[in-house]
């Protein structure tokens, strides 16, 4: 052991210390935040599928289910999305009162502090359901339960802080927000210029040591109505009142918004969404040190605290909204395609419609599978940082694709705004999800693989910590141990990847999963290929890999697909291997495999070390990228899931906010049920070449009752196809003084002619 360490490992150790790039404190804290979970198994190149299948599915308690069926349904019935964003530009007062009274803001706060004490899965289910009724309401509810004062107080606050603030947050006496983003620092929070100077000052008529704060924040959700602001800033101690260090680093504190110097700005209007959002400033705002979350001991630890909290929040809020959006798009678009006719037949029969419809269906299946699997981890106290990044990135991106597809199939129905348009506002809201909680470009290019390669790799973080150890001898010993384990792991992965690639995964590890067994074999094959290529890229590029953002993004795409496809397989197993859902699973697998193979080919084509690239191609992709995506058969079967009432359709789109009113969604549901229930009657008429149901009754082709059923279905479809129109004065105040628009423009022309 000593000979290996001193004669073989030591030169490698010295070389590696010289080339290892310096890691900033914020980078290290981001890496150390949260946990690794199933992503670590995927990085081994040989995932243990029994471990995945043994994970207990996330479930609701009786109390949580009662809340969904009670207060959540009541809230949804109170919401009118058209009036919220077009007329009121806010939630109405009775809704604000209701969400406070029913403790929607305190879902994650423990019961001992007056909250509901719900699980992450219950939080996700509530957000998901409300999202299908109103984006503004969903965002309003999700933010206090995600990244913000409540989450940070629960995890890092002192007992005194928890006892003082959590009950007020739980019952709505205080409305929270969190100020992180500033004009100078968006995704690069480390560049913020907001400051807190430790000094002595007067607070509530007593002299204390505290912080004098100056800040400018923007894009702050709930900021315009918040009474308690969680604030991120850089703390400094120039007079050394708390220690020897002058620059303490990013810190988070609680700021009651009534304090002198706090300025709440006007509202932003993000993509025409009217949830409360806006800027705020602080000018020489003084707070005592016990307003720092966690107290004086937490000064300078804010970035790690934020990253740890974000590891949970990013896995719940936006993935829940995105999964809801995809399921909503699947249900509405399937129904609309089924009832809408062009050229005398339902547009659902056109293959050009089936293709995007199948994509929507499979996206809904996969996103909800991944949401449930991630919530299962959160439910047992795991905070998977890398997986949360994958979820936020891919949930919002795939929702964007699903909503775009839904808009295309609906055509003008979804373009013309008004109370009957059930898709337009969701389409407008998509860029908000793409942008917040970390821009997707940054997440894809830098975080998913950049963070995952270090955190989830079985040995890399240990090697990096050993190289950075200030005690050289201790570092060398630790590096020797980790490095040779890494070498052994890489050799095993090499032979594993070679064997699985050349045999097309025929003998790869897989559980007995019925029709899905071959999919596990392919994922085992791709996991080995990914692990080997990642190791070789890290070996040949070292720290330079983080500057190769396009390579990093491609590796991140593969890791993301491995996780999302694992989730889809887990869902199919947990739901009892439903044959009717298999087409959706097949679509996910074929599309995911195509993405993985294409990304591997792109990595090998662009890896700077061409000798290594050629070697890897021989090992992991000797026959090139061969998967073409889902077959036409799979597309047809996948789209069919939402074209008829069925248990499969209900499994795909459960717990959407169905409200028995005359809104666009309710009209669509009624028309869909009527059309599908009269399909056999309509077929008899078409076979007899009769278009008018009264003629069909006269000729005995159908009965009077059947004819009336057809008439009801036709009337219901007509109401769905209708779009809203408005009187000119209802849209613009410039018309209100004239009798009609024609007279207005005639008078305007006469005035111009006279001048």
TrEMBL record:
Q: Which Gene3D superfamilies does the UniProt entry name for this protein?
A: Acyl-CoA dehydrogenase/oxidase, N-terminal domain, Butyryl-CoA Dehydrogenase, subunit A, domain 2, Butyryl-CoA Dehydrogenase, subunit A, domain 3
- State the pathway, as annotated in the record: Lipid metabolism; fatty acid beta-oxidation
Q: Which UniProt keywords apply?
A: FAD, Fatty acid metabolism, Flavoprotein, Lipid metabolism, Oxidoreductase
Which cofactor is recorded for it? FAD
Which residue ranges does the record assign to the Acyl-CoA dehydrogenase/oxidase N-terminal domain? 78-172
> Boundaries of each Acyl-CoA dehydrogenase/oxidase C-terminal domain copy?
300-447
Q: Write down the chemical reaction(s) this protein catalyses.
A: a medium-chain 2,3-saturated fatty acyl-CoA + oxidized [electron-transfer flavoprotein] + H(+) = a medium-chain (2E)-enoyl-CoA + reduced [electron-transfer flavoprotein]; a long-chain 2,3-saturated fatty acyl-CoA + oxidized [electron-transfer flavoprotein] + H(+) = a long-chain (2E)-enoyl-CoA + reduced [electron-transfer flavoprotein]
Family annotation (InterPro entries): Acyl-CoA_dehydrogenase, Acyl-CoA_Oxase/DH_mid-dom_sf, AcylCo_DH-like_C, AcylCo_DH/oxidase_C, AcylCoA_DH/ox_N, AcylCoA_DH/ox_N_sf, AcylCoA_DH/oxidase_NM_dom_sf, FadE_C
The record, for Pfam families, names: ACDH_C, Acyl-CoA_dh_1, Acyl-CoA_dh_N
Query: Which leading EC class covers this enzyme?
Result: oxidoreductase
Named from the GO MF annotations, one term is: long-chain fatty acyl-CoA dehydrogenase activity
What EC number(s) does its UniProt record assign? 1.3.8.7, 1.3.8.8
Please provide the Gene Ontology terms (biological process) for this protein: fatty acid beta-oxidation using acyl-CoA dehydrogenase
One GO cellular component term, please give it.
Answer: cytoplasm
Show where the Acyl-CoA dehydrogenase C-terminal bacterial-type domain sits: 454-726
Q: Which family does it belong to?
A: Belongs to the acyl-CoA dehydrogenase family.
Q: What is this protein called?
A: Acyl-coenzyme A dehydrogenase
| Organism listed in the record | Bradyrhizobium shewense
Organism phylogeny: Bacteria, Pseudomonadati, Pseudomonadota, Alphaproteobacteria, Hyphomicrobiales
């Amino acid at each position: 052991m000593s000979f290996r360490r001193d004669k073989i490992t030591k030169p490698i150790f010295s070389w590696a210390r010289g080339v290892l790039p310096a890691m900033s404190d914020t980078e290290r804290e981001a890496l150390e935040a949260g946990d690794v979970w199933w992503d670590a198994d995927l990085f081994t190149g040989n995932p243990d599928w029994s471990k995945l299948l043994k994970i207990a599915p996330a479930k609701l308690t009786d109390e949580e289910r009662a809340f969904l069926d009670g207060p959540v349904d009541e809230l949804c019935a109170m919401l009118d999305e058209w009036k919220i964003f077009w007329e009121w530009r806010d939630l109405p007062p009775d809704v604000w009162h209701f969400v406070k009274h029913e403790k929607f803001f305190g879902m994650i706060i423990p019961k001992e502090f007056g909250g509901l004490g719900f699980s992450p899965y219950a939080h996700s289910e509530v957000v998901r359901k409300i999202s299908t009724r109103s984006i503004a309401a969903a965002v309003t509810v999700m933010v206090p339960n995600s990244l913000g004062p409540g989450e940070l107080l629960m995890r890092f606050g002192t007992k005194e802080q928890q006892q003082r603030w959590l009950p007020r947050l739980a019952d709505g006496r205080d409305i929270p927000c969190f100020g992180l983003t500033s004009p100078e620092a968006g995704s690069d929070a480390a560049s913020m210029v907001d400051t807190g100077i430790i000094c002595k000052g007067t607070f509530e008529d007593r002299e204390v040591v505290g912080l004098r704060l100056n800040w400018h924040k923007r894009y702050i959700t709930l900021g315009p109505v918040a009474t308690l602001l969680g604030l991120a800033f850089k703390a400094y101690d120039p007079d050394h009142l708390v220690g020897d260090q002058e620059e303490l680093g990013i810190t988070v504190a609680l700021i009651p918004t009534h304090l002198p110097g706090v300025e709440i700005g006007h509202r932003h209007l993000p993509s025409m969404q009217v949830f409360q959002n806006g800027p705020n400033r602080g000018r020489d705002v003084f707070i005592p040190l016990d307003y720092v979350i966690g107290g004086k001991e937490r000064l300078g630890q804010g970035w790690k605290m934020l990253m740890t909290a974000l590891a949970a929040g990013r896995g719940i809020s936006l993935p829940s909204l995105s999964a809801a959006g995809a399921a909503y798009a699947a249900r509405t678009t399937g129904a609309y395609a089924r009832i809408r006719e062009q050229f005398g037949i339902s547009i659902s029969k056109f293959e050009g419609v089936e293709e995007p419809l199948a994509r929507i269906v499979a996206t809904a299946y996969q996103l909800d599978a991944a949401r449930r699997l991630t919530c299962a981890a959160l439910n047992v106290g795991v905070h998977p940082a890398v997986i949360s990044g994958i979820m936020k990135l891919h949930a919002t991106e795939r929702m964007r694709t699903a909503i775009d597809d839904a808009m295309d199939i609906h055509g003008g129905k979804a373009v013309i705004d008004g109370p009957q348009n059930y898709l337009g506002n969701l389409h407008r809201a998509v860029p908000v999800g793409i942008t917040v909680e970390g821009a997707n470009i940054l997440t894809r290019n830098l975080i998913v693989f950049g963070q995952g390669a270090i955190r989830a790799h079985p040995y890399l973080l240990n090697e990096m910590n050993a190289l950075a150890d200030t005690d050289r001898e201790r570092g060398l010993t630790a590096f020797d141990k980790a490095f040779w384990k890494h070498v052994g792991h890489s050799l095993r992965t090499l032979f594993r990847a070679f064997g699985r690639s050349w045999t097309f995964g025929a003998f790869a590890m897989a559980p007995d999963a019925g029709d899905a067994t071959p999919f596990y074999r392919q994922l085992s094959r791709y996991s080995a290929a990914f692990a080997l290529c990642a190791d070789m890229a890290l070996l040949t590029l070292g720290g330079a890999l983080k500057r190769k953002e396009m390579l990093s993004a491609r590796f991140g795409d593969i890791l993301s697909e491995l996780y999302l496809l694992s989730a889809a397989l887990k869902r199919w197993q947990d739901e009892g291997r439903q044959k009717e859902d298999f087409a959706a699973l097949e679509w996910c697998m074929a599309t995911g495999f195509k993405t993985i193979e294409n990304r591997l080919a792109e990595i090998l084509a662009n890896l700077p070390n061409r000798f290594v690239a050629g070697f890897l191609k021989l090992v992991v992709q000797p026959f090139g990228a061969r998967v073409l995506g889902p077959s036409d058969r799979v597309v047809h079967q996948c789209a069919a899931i939402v074209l008829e009432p069925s248990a499969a359709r209900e499994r795909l789109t459960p717990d959407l906010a169905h409200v028995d009113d005359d809104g666009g969604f309710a009209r669509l549901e009624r028309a869909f049920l009527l059309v599908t229930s009269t399909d056999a009657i309509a077929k008899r008429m078409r076979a007899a070449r009769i278009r008018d149901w009264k003629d069909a009754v006269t000729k005995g082709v159908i009965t009077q009752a059947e004819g009336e059923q057809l008439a009801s279905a036709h009337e219901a479809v007509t109401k769905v196809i209708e779009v809203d129109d408005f009187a000119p004065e209802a849209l613009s105040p410039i018309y209100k003084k004239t009798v009609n628009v024609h007279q207005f423009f005639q008078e305007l022309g006469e005035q111009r002619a006279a001048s």
